[in-house]
Fold:
Amino acid sequence: MRVFPLLTLSLCTAAAFSGCDEPQQSTTPPPTITPMPTAMPSMSGGMMSTPFVVPPLVNPPLQSAADARISPDEPVIGVLHKGIPRAFQLTALKDMRYHVINEHRGPASLAVTYCDRTDCVRVLEALDDNPLLVQIAGFHNGEMQVRIRDGQFSQTAKDLPAADVPFTRTTWGTWLADNPETTLFTGEPANATSSNR
Structure:
């Protein structure tokens, strides 16, 4: 009687740590979607289990390190790419509007993606010199879907038309100590707008 709960716990623990750190090859084709370029889905309690397209968020407002008003213990995703440090507050990325952030400032063009259902982070850059534009494309087979150019993919797919960029899960205090020139995305001000491109 005691073996079964331990086995269940082991399986749950294994599931919690699989799938995100190593991108997976797509095995099931995602559903065909019809773009909704300006409509946000009506929903409650998280992302719908259905295809939809959220307009891409491009260059949302960032705060300087001096202006940041978050706790040193606040979890962030830190990215140091082409010499430019950026941090993204994890609690802000949990807002569906901010699951995908496209940064097209200077030479360090990238897209930060976060799925709150799987707690998966992936940071991407273009394979060519054109800025990468990524959109949320719904939720399918247990994963957030992203749209890149004309294709739709699972967030963890290995065959994305983009390259992975290293990132760090850490706290704001630790990231700031190592990267004093960083900027920070917090989802504020509230009038951060989406941009259709």
About this structure: Helices lie at 3-16, 90-93, 172-178.
